[in-house]
Write a sequence for this structure.
């Protein structure tokens, strides 16, 4: 974990990389994902401007006496990450160090934290100060997972476009609160 932590970046660097990939795509993947980078940057900036830490959740964090570190496996084009990652960074800001590891830079980390055999992101790794893994969370809150299951169960009556729309409306209204709550329960 030490290697991954040392190669991880700050949220500011993550946001800069997101904007760079949007403005100057340097490979086929960046070109193909350009619309997702654009949405991701917009969503991250909206979350940063609208996020306000819930006082009750702050009190829960305080009561847990968690003094470890948070490592988030993510990519800037990911719709689930675009609201969750900035909310988590803002929530833990000033209390716990949070870094981001770009999934596609080295998939050996996400391969250790797969979700149902997939490299789904974001994945939040909760560690102590010695970088021992204590728990993990992701890629989306339970409510979002329920929407995914609804889509997978009957894509004809609940098509992909409706699922994506419902999920992003949920994220925009929830502003990371459910993800934070679920992570607090794992501390």
């Amino acid at each position: 974990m030490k290697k991954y932590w040392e190669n991880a970046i700050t949220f500011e660097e993550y946001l800069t990389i997101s904007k760079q990939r949007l403005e100057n795509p340097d490979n086929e993947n960046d070109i193909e994902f350009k619309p997702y980078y654009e949405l991701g940057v917009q969503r991250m900036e909206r979350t940063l401007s609208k996020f306000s830490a819930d006082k009750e959740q702050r009190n829960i964090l305080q009561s847990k006496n968690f003094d470890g570190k948070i490592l988030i496996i993510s990519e800037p084009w990911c719709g689930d990450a675009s609201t969750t990652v900035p909310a988590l960074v803002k929530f833990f800001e000033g209390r716990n160090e949070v870094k981001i590891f770009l999934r596609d830079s080295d998939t050996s980390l996400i391969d250790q934290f797969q979700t149902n055999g997939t490299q789904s992101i974001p994945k939040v790794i909760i560690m102590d100060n010695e970088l021992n893994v204590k728990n993990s969370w992701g890629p989306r809150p339970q409510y979002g997972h329920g929407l995914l299951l609804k889509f997978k169960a009957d894509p004809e009556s609940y098509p992909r476009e409706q699922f994506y729309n419902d999920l992003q409306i949920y994220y925009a209204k929830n502003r990371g609160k459910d993800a934070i709550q679920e992570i607090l329960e794992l501390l």
User: Anything to note?
Assistant: The mean pLDDT is 95. The chain is about 55% helix and 10% strand. Residues 90 and 112 are 26 Å apart (CA to CA). The first strand starts at residue 69 and ends at 74.
